[in-house]
Design brief:
Length: about 130
Amino acid sequence: MSALEIKSKTGVELATELQVTRGGITRAAKKLLQFELIIVQKAPNDKKKIYYALTSNGKVVAKLYDEMHQEIITEIEEKFSDKYSENELKTVIRFLHDLREFEDNFSLIALYIYIKKLIFCKIVTYQK
């Protein structure tokens, strides 16, 4: 949510900035809309383009989330910097990054297979 604190953004802009899939943004947006933490705005010059913006409650929650996130980062740094070397931490970070990429790619592959099955089922049903 803090990605929307400065200005409203499209789902594509958010996905790029947060390094998540557009589907992930859509799922998160649905939940945030349910809790009235964001609003959806259409671009005046392009009705297809949807922008997400924080509501006043969303701004409060985003600020609290940022504070909590910073506390967690500080605690992680304190707990792990003495326990692990810088190289070990870099290896863990690289591993987590690779794992995240794998999950993103796996999701895309699973979606591709699902769509392919749907198309195949429609073709088979149509031919009957």
